UniProtKB/TrEMBL annotation:
Belongs to the purine/pyrimidine phosphoribosyltransferase family. PyrE subfamily. 5-phospho-alpha-D-ribose 1-diphosphate binds at E121, D122, V123, V124, T125, T126, G127, K128, S129. Keywords: Glycosyltransferase, Magnesium, Pyrimidine biosynthesis, Transferase. It comes from Fervidobacterium gondwanense DSM 13020. Pfam families: Pribosyltran. Orotate binds at T125, R153. GO terms for molecular function: magnesium ion binding; orotate phosphoribosyltransferase activity. Residues 47-157 form the Phosphoribosyltransferase domain. It is an enzyme of class 2 (transferase). It catalyses: orotidine 5'-phosphate + diphosphate = orotate + 5-phospho-alpha-D-ribose 1-diphosphate. This is Orotate phosphoribosyltransferase. Catalyzes the transfer of a ribosyl phosphate group from 5-phosphoribose 1-diphosphate to orotate, leading to the formation of orotidine monophosphate (OMP). Its cofactor is Mg(2+). Its EC number is 2.4.2.10. The gene is pyrE.
């Protein structure tokens, strides 16, 4: 298994090589504003990098020896990374998606009673999407055994509490602002919303 420092270095190299690290004025999926954005979709534009990142994250998860039956990722950001992590772990990989503003399982996917579930995202900031998946898993009777993401930009070591482990490859501490207190807005710098979630989604 690669050392954590080596993993971080390699993931940062991949983010730079794929132009996934952006600077400007961005509206994040959480609704917060930031000077920086991580567009992980750029990583998965290149299957070799997507596979590599999935393997690196799976290595960290395997080292914990937790039992996992299924990996779940929220659409859109978590779909491919959840698939790649599931593939490396040798378990099922599914995703949730919003319908009428609510996160749901569709397309015949199911989580069975007492199945051990790992929730995987591309980037965690506020953890809103992940917590929506938590509700779906709980409603199905699944058991959440952990959380994972490529990037942790939550500002916390574990934004989901310490009862379940949270695995990530890189921690990025970019500044974020509430829209009403955003210096970029005050400077009239145009904002870009590159995320896929509607800000009014419940």
């Amino acid at each position: 298994m690669e050392r954590t420092g080596d993993m971080e270095k390699r993931v940062l190299e991949i983010l730079k090589e794929t132009n996934a690290l952006l600077e400007g004025h961005f509206i994040l999926s959480s609704g917060l504003h930031s000077t920086n954005y991580v567009q992980c979709a750029k990583v998965f534009e290149y299957p070799k990098y997507g596979e590599e990142v999935g393997k690196l994250l799976a290595e960290k998860i395997k080292a914990s020896n937790i039992e996992i039956d299924v990996v779940v990722g929220p659409a859109l950001g978590g779909v491919i990374v959840a698939y790649e992590v599931a593939r490396s772990l040798g378990v099922r990989g599914i995703f949730t998606e919003r319908e009428d503003g609510l996160m749901k399982l569709r397309r015949g996917f199911e989580i069975r009673e007492n199945e051990k579930v790992l929730i995987v995202e591309d980037v965690v900031t506020t953890g809103k999407s992940t917590l929506e998946v938590v509700e779906v898993v709980n409603s199905c009777g699944g058991e959440i055994v952990g959380f994972a993401s490529i990037i942790n930009r939550s500002g916390k070591e574990n934004p989901f509490g310490q009862r379940k482990p949270y695995f990530y490859l890189v921690k990025l501490d970019f500044p974020t602002y509430n829209p009403e207190n955003c210096p970029l807005c005050e400077s009239n710098i145009p904002a870009i919303k590159p995320g896929s979630r509607k800000l009014n989604a419940k």
